[in-house]
Design brief:
Layout lengths: L1 H18 L2 E9 L6 H21 L1 E3 L2 E11 L4 H13 L4 E4 L3 H14 L3 E3 L15 E3 L4 H15 L3 E6 L3 H16 L3 E7 L8 H8 L5 E5 L2 H13 L5 E4 L6 H7 L7 E6 L9 H12 L7 H18 L4 H8 L4 E2 L4 E2 L12 E7 L2 E4 L2
Parallel strand pairs: 1-3, 1-4, 4-5, 5-6, 7-8, 7-9, 9-10, 10-11
Antiparallel strand pairs: 2-3, 11-14, 12-13, 14-15
């Protein structure tokens, strides 16, 4: 009987100790199925690694030890699904959200988060409108389309020939980036000889490319995702077009190389916001730990999602609370060394250090050139 009482006492003590640990859920939303799932999973894995790191270090808020948990949702890269997912995250009691991938998902979802009082930090959505809505809890850890569009347009106009044909996928991301590219091409003395659009579900671009071929451009700019960029490169080769090709971060991946096959070569270029992974201050260590943990390569956005999750948790630590009403304002004041560099935001919620890197396809991979 004595042994039983002792055992119950120990069990009772253990239960109360466990209850003293507060579970804090961090949401993440991105396409986890479909053609963009490799990018969505990249975001989710970056968040998971950050949360595992903070849990290993131990975080105490308001006198209680906190255990962070990830709640991952699939927005299918669809604006309508994104709002449903956003509402589900808010209703489930997450204290912050890292997401979404696509600007077309982030922008409508941001209104749901704003109404629910939940901070959102996107690691990938680049459309300027996201942070122009004056939502106090909306941030991003990646450079926006104004910066990236300027880099693409200027490079196309001054380094790749000057006569530019522009294609976008009509998403908030694709069209928004293309608009900035067009401005930059003209401002840099280039000539826009064609502007066409497709969709983010298309696979046949022959009619568009045939019209563009008649204009004899020096360079084709594609503003969209890798799942369209790869087949587009194949069809550019099929039509015997000698134009150079440049795309933004949505196509600056290993996946586009696989999809394009032998149609990709040294005439292909792309851009990514931020520094190359190997040149990021924390990039080398992050890359090694990421590959060891998930047995896969970093696509693009994992470092940005890691730092986005870190920004949320650092703000909680600064406010000594996981209550969004208490810590949200602290996100705008964070300043810490992240994987990508110094993580700090301007008054709108954009990352302060918005570098953009141009890459060229060489020796089977994307090599930074500028």
């Amino acid at each position: 009987m004595k042994h039983t009482l002792v055992a119950l006492a120990v069990l009772g003590f253990g239960a109360s100790a466990a209850q003293a640990q507060e579970v804090v859920k961090i949401g993440t939303a991105a396409p986890l199925t479909g053609t963009q799932s490799h990018l969505g999973k990249d975001i989710e894995n970056g968040v998971r690694l950050a949360i595992e790191d903070y849990n290993a270090k131990g975080v105490t808020l308001g006198g209680k030890k906190v255990k962070f948990e990830v709640m991952a949702e699939d927005d299918a890269a669809d604006p309508k699904t994104a709002t449903t997912v956003a509402q589900r995250l808010v209703d489930s009691g997450v204290k912050g959200v890292v997401g979404h991938l696509n600007s077309g998902a982030s922008i409508p979802a941001s209104r749901i988060y704003n109404e629910g009082g939940i901070p959102q930090v996107s690691p990938a959505s680049t459309n300027p409108k996201l942070t122009q809505q004056n939502f106090k809890g909306t941030f991003r850890t990646i450079a926006n389309d104004v910066q990236q569009g300027l880099a693409i347009g200027k490079y196309a106009a001054t380094k790749l020939g000057g006569k530019v044909a522009l294609i976008d996928d009509r998403t908030a991301y694709g069209q928004g980036l293309a608009d900035e590219v067009e401005k930059a091409v003209k401002a840099s003395g280039g000539k826009l000889v064609a502007r066409e659009f497709t969709s983010d579900k298309a696979t046949d671009f022959l009619s568009i490319l045939t019209r563009i071929k008649a204009q004899n451009p020096d360079v084709i700019v594609y503003s969209g995702m890798d799942t369209q960029g790869g087949p587009m490169l194949k069809q550019i080769k099929q039509l015997g077009m000698g134009a150079k090709f440049i795309t933004g971060d949505g196509g600056c991946t290993g996946e586009i190389i696989k999809l394009a096959g032998d149609a990709i070569g040294p005439n292909a270029y792309c851009t990514q916001p931020g520094l190359p992974l190997e040149k990021m201050p924390g990039g080398k260590d992050f890359n090694a730990r990421f590959k060891k943990r998930f047995h896969t390569e970093v696509q693009i956005y994992a470092p940005y999602s890691y730092d986005a999750a870190s920004a949320i948790i650092e703000a909680m630590k600064a406010a000594n609370s996981s209550d969004p009403a208490k810590y949200a304002a602290s996100i705008g004041k964070v300043n810490f060394p992240g994987v990508i560099g110094t993580v700090a935001f301007d008054a709108k919620g954009d990352i302060k250090e918005g570098a953009v890197t141009v890459y060229q396809f060489k020796s089977g991979k994307w090599e930074p050139v500028n």
